[in-house]
Amino acid sequence: MANQATAVAYAALLLAGSKTPLTVENVEKLTKKAGVNVPSQLATQFVRAFEGKDIISLLSVGGGSGSAPAAQPTQAAAKPAEAPKAAEKPKDPEPEEDVDMGGLFD
Question: How confident is the model at residue 55, as a pLDDT?
Answer without folding.
Answer: 78
